[in-house]
């Protein structure tokens, strides 16, 4: 089995697509009206208009109702990612070193989902050595 993607269901398709394209620096691939993928190394983030879910699986998913999952994006430079998102995202938690060593910041996407932008200690050491 291969974990292929996470799909976000939204009523703010263009705003969500712009948010994740900006965060990742990756252009979205539009596969249908109201459906696109942001294809990243390791996984794909699919974004779907709620109306498409309603057409095929009415009531199966409700837009902007996530209160338990956190989407996590590993980056080499947390501050650089935050600078790229300045003015485009609510900062929930400023950059913090977590007990397990990750450097992490939390944002909210346009639908209110939590987004963790983090770097691992090994990536931090490599970034420092390269500077």
UniProtKB/TrEMBL annotation:
Gene3D superfamilies: 2,3-Dihydroxybiphenyl 1,2-Dioxygenase, domain 1. Residues 2-120 form the VOC domain. This is Putative glyoxalase superfamily protein PhnB. It comes from Acidovorax soli.
